[in-house]
Amino acid sequence: MRAVCQRVSRARVTVDGSSTGEIARGLVVLLGVARGDAETDADRFARKVARLRVFEDDDGKFARSLLDVGGAALVVSQFTLIADTRKGNRPSFTEAAPPDEAIALYERFCAELASAGVHVQRGAFGARMAVELVNDGPVTIVLD
What we know:
Helix content: 10-25%
């Protein structure tokens, strides 16, 4: 499992011109699920994202999490994060989980994040999405 977390002032996802998710202050989480990932991975990643201290305190230090600032998460499935580019110029996606497995773990991640107290919005699993965001900082963290 791999997640790219971007601190944003606002973000939204649209599919065919219709919004599927939109947030103000928070994190856009691009989530890639790999073969062999399990529910425990989804749970661990959700806990990590909820508590990831990437929001500044009064002294300008990264000391606050989504939970601390009341931020939201826009979670977008992105199998391309699992790409292998070691050989040639075309990415290989053989290590990405099959869709039926990936959607179950994506849903589990979103549910765990919500149960931790984070307001969760979503993209549309498997759809061609347009993701618009204003990266605040910019701050981008990769979780493996």
